[in-house]
Amino acid sequence: MASFYGDDLAHIQHDGFRDFSARAAPALLKLLHGAGLRRGTVVDLGCGDGTWLRALTRAGHAAIGIEVSPALVKHARRQAPRARIHVGSIYTTPLPACDAVTALGEVLGYLPAAGERSARIPGFAAFFRRVARALRPGGLFAFDLVVRSAKRPLHTRNYREGEGWAVLAESIEDAKRGRLTRDITMFRRIGASDRWRRSHEVHRVRVPEKTEILRALRDAGFVAKASNAYGRNAAMLPGRAAFFARKPKRG
Questions:
Q1: Same domain, 126 and 44
Q2: DSSP 8-class letter at 247
Q3: How would you write the pLDDT of the chain (251 residues) with one tens digit per residue?
Q4: Tell me, what CATH number does 191's domain have?
Q5: Co-location of 65 and 99 in the same domain
Q6: End-to-end CA distance of the chain
Q7: Would you say 131 and 141 are in contact if contact means Cβ atoms under 8 Å apart?
């Protein structure tokens, strides 16, 4: 089903890259509590390995995850056994009535993999209206995206290694098209042997203007703002922004 986050990248994400969700969790929980949502239902779109779902359930929330990668779902179900997790697209899986919706890690920017002709995704404005319909009055919507910079397009190369794995990633932004291509090569040890497996994924990501996202959120009926962090310990990387939106209460 999934063209993103196969077994190797899912393992690497869980083992070496879950720290951002863990750092963002306290600030997001504080945001929920500040809005009076201490025991609400939270839907996490693209829930990944379940790090944020686990924090939600431990804090007493009813957590629902939607994730297109079966490999990541295996990790999420182990991490957050009290959460309900669905394997499927965030664009076609029905959104239940809820108190908050989150999407950490540029989830809403991902485009279908090359060659997936049948996979179509809505524009931001249409998707935000869908989220607004699912949220109860006073509900929260928090997510992050790669956004266009006024300075220069993103072009980064990163390398990281852990126990039995290594990953190299190059991200190149095409500012004219509003797209970022992330080329990822992974190496993973096979069992306890000295043999390694090489795998490769290419991710394509939409790169909108920050003002475009804020305008679409407000057009969908949200009160919205952008930030460079989820909290004191979870600053956005260069070229990223976090968005916080609230559906007004009736009356």
A1: yes
A2: P
A3: 346 899 999 999 999 999 999 999 999 999 999 988 988 999 999 999 999 999 999 999 999 999 999 999 999 999 999 999 999 999 999 999 999 999 999 999 999 865 555 457 889 999 999 999 999 999 999 999 999 987 889 999 999 999 999 999 999 999 999 999 999 999 999 988 889 999 999 999 999 999 999 999 999 999 999 999 998 889 999 899 999 999 998 74
A4: 2.20.25.110
A5: yes
A6: 44
A7: yes
The half-sphere exposure of 160 on its side-chain side, counting CA atoms within 13 A, is 11
What percentage of the chain's residues is helix, strand, coil (to nearest 5)?
25, 35, 40
Residue 251 in domain: no
Are residues 239 and 120 part of one domain? yes
Bridge pairing between strands 41-45 and 62-67: parallel
Which is nearest to 128 in space by CA: 246, 4, 250? 246
One domain, residues 104 and 179:
no
Q: Helices in the chain by DSSP H: which ranges? A: 7-16, 19-34, 51-58, 70-79, 124-134, 210-219
Domain shared by 78 and 160, yes or no: no
Spatial separation of the C-alpha atoms in residues 67 and 87, rounded to whole Å: 5
Same-domain status, 191 and 124: no
* Amino acid letter for position 82: R
Name the pTM for this structure: 0.94
Radius of gyration of the chain (CA): 18
58 & 179 share domain: no
Residue 85 CA to its chain's centroid (Å): 15
